[in-house]
Amino acid sequence: MTYEAQSAENPLTKYYRQPKLYIQLPSDGKFYPDGSLEKTENGEYPIYSMTARDDLTLKIPDALLNGQATVDIIKSCVPNIKDPWSMPSIDVDAVLIAIRMATQGENLDLDINIPNTKEQRSFSLNLQILLGQLTQAVYEEKINYQSMIIHTTPLSYREFTKVSLRTFEEQRVIAIVNNDSMEEEEKLERFASAFRKLTDITIDTVRQGIHKIEVDGQSVTDQTHISDFVLNCDKGFYNRVTDHIEQQKDRFAIKPMEVESTPEEIKLGAPAKFNVPVVLDMSIFFGSGS
Asked: Which helix (H) or strand (E) holds 232?
């Protein structure tokens, strides 16, 4: 009996991880399917630091490529998000930045190349500023087209990961076109196949981004009906939706950081100011301390 009591109460429990910070999600908790997010009363969510197991997850190449590493780390460090695959993609970068802050601090040290020179120097990026930019962005759900009101929704992380295949297909198309050793007939056949796949991915992205269409006093939410319409609509509708999707994507994209050159760097040919893109490469982003 004594042994069972001791086994049931681990004396190390009080030394388990505790939340390091709390954040508001850019989505404000919207767009999550039922059961995928445990909402809080004040809209702020606890963020825990990474465990040793989380760190080892980043060393599995396949898990990094297919998004599983990101899902596993979010599930470990943000327990309120029950199904990270279903989370809206507009929340992903903010959550990853918060996890990095909880694990290694607010500053991220980067080595940057100075334009027009052979110089390189370290730059400290304040992640709190980046996080603030993302959490303050607002997603616009509705757009108007002729007599329609179109309700859009951000892609889920699962859908977003699938869409990343588009980049791969685009690279394949470019490689095929530039391959001089390939016979012309084979080149045309492969190009057509890759282009069809790229077209299907692009159209599917638009379909998944539409939640509801209000028209003629009706609300169309049946995804089969919406899919049929996307395949048969005029170009104007399609362009209106794709433009809106890109605008919302840009709102939640991490802006490049502006760097000022030193007088010495300017003498070597560097511009007075230049922008450096910030990319959340998981293996690098979580790879070094602040």
From this structure: helix 223-232
Residue (of 90, 112, 72, 115) closest to 32 by Cα position: 90
Q: What is the pTM of this model?
A: 0.83
- One-letter amino acid of 252: F
> Given the structure tokens 């293996």, which residue do they identify?
283
Instruction: Name the nearest CA neighbour of 48 among 106, 95, 99.
Output: 99
DSSP state of 15: G
* DSSP designation for 53: H
Under 8 Å CB-to-CB from 122, ≥6 apart: which residues? 109, 110, 111, 112
Beta strands 21-24; 44-47: pairing state: antiparallel
Segment 258-288, tens digit of pLDDT:
899 999 999 999 999 999 888 776 666 676 4
- H or E segment at 160? helix 157-163
CA dist 290 and 278 (Å) reads 16
Q: For helices 165-177 and 184-208, give the axis angle rounded to 10 degrees.
A: 160
| CB neighbours of residue 195 within 10 Å | 15
Backbone CA torsion sign across 44, 50, 53, 56: positive
Sequence-distant (6+) residues with CB within 8 A of 172 are 190, 194
Provide the β-strand partners of residue 213: 150, 220
- Do the Cβ atoms of 272 and 86 come closer than 8 Å? no
Query: Mean pLDDT, to the nearest integer, of 240-268?
Result: 91
pLDDT tens track for 16-64:
899 999 999 999 999 999 999 999 999 999 999 999 998 888 877 766 7
What six digits make up the tokens of 13? Answer: 């429990």
